[in-house]
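We treat protein structure as text, and this decision shapes the records that our systems exchange. Because each token names a local backbone shape, the row as a whole describes the fold. An entry from our holdings is shown next, in its original layout:
>
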Amino acid sequence: MVDAGDYASILPTNFVLDTIYPNPFNPSTNISFAVPVDSHVNISIYDINGRLVEKLLNNMVSAGYHQIEWNGINESSGLYILKMQSDGFIDTQKMMLIK
């Protein structure tokens, strides 16, 4: 049995956007992130010109570690920007789709 003290120790202490894997990728990649408290999280993909390509997540997320997948099969090869926003936290990463 896990008590409340043990549960608290496995929750992240900060917002984190982990390294995208694989990167470069074809056609899909995994996006891992962590939220320390239940939060509204927005994760979006932009092309190199700053145009929104896809909104992957725009919902409340429970505290903990999460993973989502982006499949770029319908997109062109090239550089994309991943952006995560939540409760004052903003982080971006470059990702390369190679076909």
Q: What stands out?
A: The chain has one helix and seven strands. The two ends are 48 Å apart (CA to CA).
